[in-house]
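Q: I'm building a small set of examples for a reading group on sequence design. Run inverse folding on the following structure and report the sequence directly after it, with nothing in between.
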């Protein structure tokens, strides 16, 4: 298995090559500095989750494009052990581990991520593109979700859908790690066609 940082480095380089974007151009499109992009492409630094989203938004591509693809499993396969969660996931910043459960597939229009929030972690998310919807299912909780300006306490097993094209956030103020699944649905025309830079979201 490829380690998450080198997978990200390679995915970013490949996407940039496919689009024929220079580092300068990519910096302008994503709002991430050229220096930082260079470091990520050389696998010298792990971006914060905010940076990861800026890159995905700039390329107008789902964030799972940059995460190690999930292992194909049979219907009887397990969703992965606790160790798997940490080993396969990308630690994007202190306190947050993210991994892809289902990579984005245009046929289905969604990607599904698993996020682990360590105790005390607060993550405020900038709005995603218009029409993006998140479906959050709490696997291990409680944790809190910021929707419409209000923090809601969600116990284990809760399922919440909300429009993610506005500010929202996730936090864990407990003493135990919180785990949630996030199914992110994109509008049908979301993914930018190869070679066509299109508008910046
Ligand atoms: Mn979000």
């Amino acid at each position: 298995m490829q380690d998450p940082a080198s997978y990200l480095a390679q995915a970013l380089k490949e996407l940039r090559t496919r689009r024929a974007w220079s580092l300068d151009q990519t910096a302008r499109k994503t709002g991430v500095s050229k220096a930082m992009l260079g470091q990520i492409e050389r696998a010298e630094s792990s971006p914060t989750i905010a940076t990861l989203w800026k890159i995905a938004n700039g390329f107008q591509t789902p964030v799972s494009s940059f995460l190690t693809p999930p292992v194909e499993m049979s219907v009887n396969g397990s969703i992965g052990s606790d160790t798997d969660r940490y080993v396969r996931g990308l630690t994007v910043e202190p306190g947050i581990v993210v991994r892809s459960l289902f990579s984005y597939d245009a046929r289905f229009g969604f990607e599904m991520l698993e996020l682990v929030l360590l105790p005390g972690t607060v993550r405020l998310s900038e709005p995603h593109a218009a029409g993006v919807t998140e479906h959050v299912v709490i696997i291990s909780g409680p944790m809190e979700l910021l929707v419409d300006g209000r923090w809601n306490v969600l116990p284990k097993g809760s399922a919440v859908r909300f429009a993610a094209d506005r500010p929202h956030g996730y936090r864990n103020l407990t003493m135990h790690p919180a785990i949630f699944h996030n199914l992110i649905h994109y509008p049908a025309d979301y993914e930018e066609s190869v070679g066509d830079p299109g508008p910046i979201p």
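The first strand starts at residue 90 and ends at 93.
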